[in-house]
Amino acid sequence: MTRNDTPGTAGTPEDEHDLRISGGTVVSAFTGEEFAADVLVRGETISGVVPPGTRAAARAHLDATGLLVAPGFVDAHMHIESSFLTPRTFAAVTLARGTTTVLADPHEIVNVAGAEAMRWMIEEGRGTAQTQLWGVPSCVPAVRGLEHSGADLGADDIAAMLRWPGVVALGEVMDYRAVVGGEPRMRGVVGVAREHGALLDGHCPNLSGAELSAYMAQGIDSDHTKNRTEVVLEKARLGMLMMLQEKCLLPEVVEALLALPQLPPLCLVTDDLAADHIVRAGHLDHIGRVAVRAGLPPAAALRAMTWTPAQRLRLYDRGVVAPGKRADLVLLRGALGDFDPAVVLAGGRVVARDGAPEPESGEGVRREGGAGSAAGGPLTGTVRAASPGPEDFRWLVDLPDGEHTFRAMRTNPRDTYTEAVEIVLPVAGGEVRWEGRAALVRVHNRYGRQGTVFAPLLGPDLAPGAVATTYAHDSHNLLTIGTSPAAMAAATAQVVADGGGVAVVHGDGATAARLPLPVGGVMSPAAADEVAAGARKVRSALEEWGWRHLNPFMSVSTLTLAVSPSLKITDMSLVDVARRDPVTATV
To answer: Which of 217, 232, 271, 351 has the least CB density, counted as fewest CB within 10 Å?
Structure first.
């Protein structure tokens, strides 16, 4: 920016603007039009959108020649912990990609440490240039009675947290079966949120017909999960706000939406993106490009990441470049559909250029000490599990010697659906002989409780090795997958030694990659580049091992998500998600 000292500029000092952005082309999130205009800013507010060259005094000038001036991006559904970054570091790296506002649902860390963890997250994000709003997790644990987490929140807890500053929503109501079935606990949670006037975010993959009506009748009016195309249309026509993350943005889904007499309101959301993905490919800007490649017109994509999510979050002061609105702006290179941020402003200040935070903006500067310290505050030392040996990965059963049919989980390379299948395995001396026939999944309670469950895993063609992690939705118990007890023990011991995180072992014991996550076992206090480098190595090691998936972190970590179809595993049992029931290891 440069000072505007043009002589003869009209206006008194009181009328002077703080900033003039000139030479750019404004994009209207209302009409989809692009038009030449200068944008004036006073304080945190857009004070004018005027024809180029209109006389107006400004203290500083920003040349936007050749750039598109668009509203800052608004992410209406995401989880900061999935980036592995703490809120302040997350703000720096995502602001640089144009995301100026987020609604964060911290159900990962709250499952670990309860209300104290949410208070820490809010304080850690306070003072960043990014607007961080919060949703109180609705399902802690995700399914009570089927798993143990580090906390258990009831309606009274949630009612108290909804009164905290910056808290505007009830986080995604994942236990949709409990809502549809009239389970008192979930009805109570939803009820207090409605009484408070909070937004009610949904999670109900492929819920349809009378069950969908029963769910929506409780006031839950959004969904971000992957649905069959016909269910997307059904939900949209009933007024459920469809929030489309990357795995939802299939060409056939976009084509069906565009074929409707009127395109319904849509939000593009990130949900879960790891640090290495954000640094390499982008954040909400990336989702915008995915949507355009799937067939959504660029102007519709922009509206779905600006105006519509702002309206959803009741942030009526943003989402469009217009006088009186908050000066959250993204100056884009190239065509609109490229969503390539050159300069980002938040509250009238330049906070990033060319994908990097502005040094003078203060973003990404680590604070020392205090409740909001990026060092992790009270959330370290949460992995209370002993370092295991290979003997801890013997799958012991009360079955006679011989061949037995077991339930197995089958993964796929695109989404987090796990199919329930059967496999015949021999039992000898009370031990299942699974090696060479399947991979093995083990979930072990990390909160000092008893609880260890095993299951066979089919799908990926894995070389010898293992992965262990405490980043395992949503209770974040200690999850290990491997091809031998020795490899599984080595990977798990590394994660325990790191105080939580992810470790990949190739062969029977050599650590190929690790990502320490000592903050609650799900986040790192390190700088974004360091966390991204560690995540990249883990991703590469998983792929080299044979774990092929569009999002390997999510594929691994959702094996334990007992609200995600179809067969999952917790520290208590295998879970039939559709029936919301525990099931036995044998068929």
So the answer is: 217
Pairwise CA distance, residues 464 & 384, whole Å: 28
Q: What is the DSSP string of 356-380?
A: EE-GGG-TTPPP-SSTT-TT-GGGS
Q: What is the mean pLDDT of residues 52-61?
A: 96
**Sheet of 439-444, strand order:** 431-432, 419-428, 402-410, 452-458, 439-444, 478-482, 465-469, 501-506, 510-516
Contact call for residues 564 and 489 (beta carbons, < 8 A): no
Using CA atoms, how far apart are residues 542 and 244, in angstroms rounded to an integer? 27
Q: Does 369 have pLDDT greater than 60?
A: no
Residue 368 has pLDDT above 90, yes or no: no
Q: What's the CA gap between 168 and 157, in Å, rounded?
A: 15
- Token code pair at residue 394: 């013997």
End-to-end CA distance of the chain, in Å? 69
> Is the preceding peptide bond at 338 cis, omega within 30 degrees of 0?
no
What pLDDT, in 10s, does the model give residues 386-444? 999 999 999 999 999 999 999 999 999 989 999 999 999 999 999 999 999 999 999 99
Strand partners, 568: 575
224-to-134, 272, 286, 291, 414 alpha-carbon distances in Å:
17, 11, 17, 14, 16
Contact 1, 43 (CB under 8 A): no
Task: Provide the 10 A C-beta neighbour count for residue 433.
Answer: 12
Give, in order, the Cα–Cα distances in Å from 285 to each of 278, 422, 541. 10, 41, 27
Q: What are the CA-CA distances from residue 100 to residues 103, 116, 163, 532, 536 (Å)?
A: 11, 26, 24, 21, 25
Radius of gyration (C-alpha) of the chain in whole angstroms: 25
Of how many residues is the chain composed? 587
328: phi then psi, degrees, rounded to nearest 5? -95, 110
Count other C-beta atoms under 10 Å from residue 324's C-beta.
Answer: 9
Q: Whole-model pTM?
A: 0.93
| Ramachandran area for residue 206 (φ above 0: left; ψ -120 to 50: alpha; else beta) | left
